[in-house]
């Protein structure tokens, strides 16, 4: 008997709105889940949001909201994009939920009372001194830095010393290594497995389970002065969502007795492949069966970055190509799992080639010929004709081959199986030329060709259903097919179409995209940008607040720079400002100024700056913009 499948995305960090990376992983898991359901498998699909940690607290403060208000606002955008992309998750977990917190408390308590094989406490308290990157939400070492900065976030990490609780990771590494090498804990692709084994062979320190100085998190049950380390909190979502601590039967079905698959990007490899297994071993729970860590992607050859302006909003792709077009295009840009380059300019070309020209054209030609020549009724098959046997032999392996690709996470190859069959059938249609057969009076032979092509379309509509469910329903409606036969079993049966069933089509299933119109729009947009014009929505993104300068000092070696500590109402920030020529420290101290409060942090002369002062300058004169004295620090400027 096949085990139930429990499959998860990572939970997405909520310090900003969703982007194409979130969409990519979610669509991939949705496709996998739907395909297994086609095969009759019981599937539970989890996704959600990671809502604790310093980054969220800082983002909330910048927005002038409490942490939970900020999370409640942002989570809506994540749920909306899942709905827009037709993601059919079974549960959405939030780490701020009470259910999740209780599960975190339980696993921490269990680990706290556990012993290693040599009798030591699994959890212990100790002082930790090191470098911490808030952007990464992790401690990093000197050897990780590039020119003294975090390689990912380009900021200088903070030197911290605090007393934390730790998990004795070293006690579990031999067992974890053994499980990975035997593939009992399967890590895919193979290069990720080698990477994890390489990490194990290094001198890895024990992992922190708690943080003393972080306030926005789950308080640990045995020390209310500490909160659970954000990764301990986040990883626990995989079990909190299915009943760990509150529903024994559900947890048994979807964890203990199921095949468990976690899918994520490779940047969170260490926590998923080392910390998570160690936590589960310490808690006496089974490990996941498979961890699949897909690669990164660039956009038009560049790393995706708001600074470069090359981030791709999944909402925009949906607007242009429809939901199913967006799903298809995101998973067919390059083989799933590897690093790849997303080229937005190729979206329309790919859409027109695969969907409009190949699949859409086949459906339209077959349906219209049946409508015109067979009174809109599916003709009878010619079961023994040599030609249909040739098409059957090409078709019959496709559904199971596609499912085999899905089982091995070869998502683009599963799609290719169907599209290659469509292209073969288009060639078959052209070679058999049913329009000529009709003209020559060979109506029965023409009907056999059209039936065979329609039958291939029916099978393709099942194989492509997991990636394009809405469009495949449209295809099936053309041939009077309902959802009851959207199964892998049905896809493996030829001659399933019922002769005499109604065929009807009005509009093209995949209308062609006008690539010239797209290019024209891009040029117009570029011209508008060249004119330095912005619309009101761009301006609305800028958050201006009143700030009071509390402290000021010159930056060593920089005549024009001051390092300021400013009060913005909800917090004190550090800002580096190039105003020292006009405002010496003693003059600017105590002033109220206007601050751009939602700029990303920047490092200037090795000092992190969180904001920018507004000033007017003409010639050699510069004046800071100042509000009325009656306005308090933190007041919004609009």
Brief digest:
This protein is α/β, with parallel strands linked by helices.
Task: Describe the protein in words.
The protein has 638 residues and is an alpha/beta fold. 42% of the residues lie in helices and 19% in strands. The protein has 22 helices and 27 strands. The strands form 7 sheets. Strands 1, 2, 3, 4, 8, 13 and 14 form a 7-stranded parallel β-sheet that branches. Strands 18, 19, 20, 21, 24 and 27 form a 6-stranded antiparallel β-sheet that branches. α14 runs antiparallel to α15. The radius of gyration is 29 Å and the shape is globular.
Provide key terms for this protein.
638 residues, alpha/beta, 6-stranded antiparallel β-sheet, 42% helix, 19% strand, globular
Percentage of β-strand residues = 15-25%
pLDDT averaged over residues = 90
**How many strands, what sense, and barrel or not for the largest sheet?**
7 strands, parallel
Tell how many strands the DSSP assignment holds.
27
Distance between the termini: 64 Å
Which residue ranges are poorly predicted, with pLDDT under 50 across at least 5 consecutive positions?
none
Derived structural class: alpha/beta
Overall geometry comes to: globular
Number of helices: 22
Gyration radius, in Å:
29 Å
């Amino acid at each position: 008997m096949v085990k139930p499948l429990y499959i998860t995305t990572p939970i997405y960090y909520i310090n900003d709105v969703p982007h194409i990376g979130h969409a990519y992983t979610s669509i991939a898991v949705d496709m996998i889940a739907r395909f297994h359901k086609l095969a009759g498998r019981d599937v539970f699909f989890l996704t959600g949001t990671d809502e604790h940690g310093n980054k969220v607290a800082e983002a909330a403060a910048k927005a002038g909201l409490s942490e939970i208000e900020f999370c409640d606002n942002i989570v809506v955008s994540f749920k909306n994009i899942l709905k827009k992309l037709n993601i059919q998750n079974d549960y959405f977990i939030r780490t701020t939920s009470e259910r999740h917190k209780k599960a975190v408390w339980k696993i921490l308590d269990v680990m706290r009372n556990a012993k290693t094989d040599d009798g030591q406490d699994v959890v212990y308290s100790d002082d930790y001194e090191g470098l911490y990157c808030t952007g990464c939400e992790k401690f990093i070492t000197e050897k990780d830095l590039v020119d003294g900065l975090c390689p990912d976030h380009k900021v200088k990490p903070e030197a911290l010393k605090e007393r934390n609780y730790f998990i004795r990771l070293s006690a579990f590494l031999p067992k974890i290594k053994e499980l990975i090498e035997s593939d009992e804990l399967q890590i895919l692709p193979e290069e990720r497995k080698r990477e994890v084994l390489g990490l194990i062979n290094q001198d890895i320190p024990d992992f922190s389970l708690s943080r003393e100085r972080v306030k926005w998190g789950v308080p640990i049950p045995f020390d209310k002065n500490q909160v659970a380390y954000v990764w301990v909190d986040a990883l626990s979502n995989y079990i909190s969502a299915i009943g760990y601590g509150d529903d024994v039967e559900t947890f048994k079905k979807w964890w203990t007795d199921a095949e468990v698959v976690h899918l994520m990007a490779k940047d969170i490899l260490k926590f998923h492949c080392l910390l998570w297994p160690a936590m589960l071993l310490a808690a006496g729970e089974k490990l996941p069966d498979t961890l699949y860590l897909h690669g990164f992607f660039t956009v038009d050859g560049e790393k995706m970055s708001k600074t470069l302006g090359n981030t791709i909003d999944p909402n925009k792709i949906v607007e242009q190509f429809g939901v199913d077009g967006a799903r298809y295009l995101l998973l067919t840009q390059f083989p799933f799992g590897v690093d790849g380059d997303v080229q937005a300019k190729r979206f329309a070309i790919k859409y027109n080639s695969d969907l409009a020209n190949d699949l859409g054209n086949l459906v339209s030609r077959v349906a219209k010929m049946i409508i015109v020549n067979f009174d809109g009724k599916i003709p009878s098959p010619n079961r023994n004709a040599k030609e249909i046997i040739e098409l059957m032999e090409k078709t019959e392996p496709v559904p199971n081959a596609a499912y085999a690709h899905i089982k091995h996470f070869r998502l683009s190859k599963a799609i290719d199986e169907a599209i290659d069959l469509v292209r073969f059938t288009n060639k078959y249609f052209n070679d058999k030329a049913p329009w000529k057969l009709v003209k020559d009076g060979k109506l029965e032979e023409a009907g056999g060709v059209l039936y065979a092509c329609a039958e291939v379309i029916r099978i393709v509509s099942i194989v492509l259903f997991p990636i394009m469910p809405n469009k495949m329903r449209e295809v099936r409606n053309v041939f009077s097919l309902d959802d009851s036969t959207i199964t892998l079993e049905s896809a493996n049966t030829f001659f399933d179409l019922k002769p005499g069933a109604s065929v009807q089509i009005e509009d093209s299933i995949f209308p062609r995209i006008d690539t010239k119109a797209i290019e024209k729009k891009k040029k117009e947009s570029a011209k508008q940008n060249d004119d330095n014009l912005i619309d009101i929505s761009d301006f609305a993104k800028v958050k201006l607040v009143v700030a009071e300068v509390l402290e000021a000092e010159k930056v060593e070696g920089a005549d024009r720079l001051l390092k300021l500590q400013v009060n913005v109402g909800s917090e004190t920030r550090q800002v580096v400002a190039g105003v020292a020529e006009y405002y010496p420290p003693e003059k600017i101290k105590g002033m109220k100024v206007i601050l751009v409060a939602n700029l990303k942090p920047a490092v200037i002369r090795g000092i992190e700056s969180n904001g920018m002062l507004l000033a007017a300058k003409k010639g050699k004169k510069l004046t800071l913009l100042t509000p009325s004295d009656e306005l308090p620090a933190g007041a919004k400027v609009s």
